[in-house]
Design goal:
Length: 157
């Protein structure tokens, strides 16, 4: 997996299964902006890139291009546990996913919301409860550099 901060592209390279003569599969995700439109020192938030990755990987598995998540892990050179963490982002409520995917570039400071906080949020099965906690966790706006509201103890949710 690679990321080009200038264009906002996420590049995924999947190696073929052992013993197969298939070429490496390469996918490019994200909005591509002209280099002069992207401010120097900005990048897409990590969680935005990971959610885009999860959506693309889900499409690859559903289409049969990659048979299952274990094969996805092998071809992506990551553990099955890491694939599970990334794919669990799809358990977020649809409005939360939409907001994360619409976030613009951020300066090289902290991300608006950490991946760890989102992983805790994915464990909550009720979207209404997720949305309630999200309103307290998320920044006021997608470009906000202010810290999110009061810390939320998601372990007690």
């Amino acid at each position: 997996m690679g990321y080009d901060g200038t264009t906002g592209q996420v590049t995924l390279n999947f190696r073929p299964a052992a013993g197969m003569d298939e070429p490496v599969l390469t996918y490019i995700l994200g909005r591509v902006a002209e280099a002069e439109q992207v401010a120097e020192g900005t990048r897409l938030p990590r969680v935005t890139r990971l959610l885009a990755l999860a959506l693309k990987c889900e499409g690859l598995v559903r289409s049969g291009t990659i048979p299952d998540y274990a094969e996805l892990a092998r071809r992506g050179w990551v553990t099955r546990a890491r694939v599970t963490q990334i794919m669990n982002l799809l358990h977020l409520a649809a409005p939360i996913q939409e907001e994360i995917l619409n976030w613009s570039e951020v300066e090289n400071e902290r991300d608006p919301v950490s991946e760890r906080a989102l992983r805790r949020l994915t464990r909550i099965p009720m979207w209404s409860k997720q949305l309630e906690l999200w309103r307290r966790l998320a920044p006021a706006g997608p470009r906000s550099s202010a810290p999110a509201g009061k810390p939320v103890d998601l372990s007690r949710a």
